[in-house]
Amino acid sequence: MILAWEKGDRALPKETLGPNARAGLDSLLHDETWDALRTRLWHITLTDKVAVGYRFDNPGSGSELFDTLFKDGAGKDCGRLRIRFLSPDLVIDTPDIEDLLGLISRCAANQ
């Protein structure tokens, strides 16, 4: 999901999202286009090199909520978000996908 968002890949995020997250993304895209959403949240040019890391603070099993800690390209903490994942492939199923995309964008921009 992070790589797809960084690249602006419209198709890949759908493959990495569970039903609740897909519904959240579809809701966002009901009011604006994919390009408008990217313009609003992603403030980095295509020539900028970006990196976003993450780790799970409380790994579990099954359909779980994970406190997910994010790091920017310099390795500094840049945010924390509780994300719902579906097992076994850790498909993101957080309905408020805008929060996640916004956090990834801020971390990529080192903000």
Quickly list its features.
four-stranded antiparallel β-sheet; 111 residues; alpha+beta; 4 strands; single chain; 22% strand
Identify the overall geometry: globular
Tell me roughly what share of residues is in helical segments: 25-40%
* Cα Rg: 13 Å
What average pLDDT do the residues reach? 86
What is the string of SSEs from the N terminus onward? HHHHEEEEH
Low-confidence stretches: none
Global structural class: alpha+beta
Question: Overview of this structure, please?
Answer:
This protein is an alpha+beta fold and 111 residues long. Strands 1-2-3-4 form a 4-stranded antiparallel sheet. Strand 1 and strand 2 form a beta hairpin. It starts with a helix and ends with a helix. The model has no long low-confidence stretch (mean pLDDT 86).
Spell out the blueprint of helices and strands:
Layout: H1 2-7, H2 11-15, H3 19-31, H4 34-41, E1 53-56, E2 64-71, E3 77-86, E4 91-92, H5 97-108
Antiparallel strand pairs: 1-2, 2-3, 3-4
Compact overview of the structure:
With 111 residues, the protein is α+β, with helices and mostly antiparallel strands. It has helices at 2-7, 11-15, 19-31, 34-41, 97-108; strands at 53-56, 64-71, 77-86, 91-92.
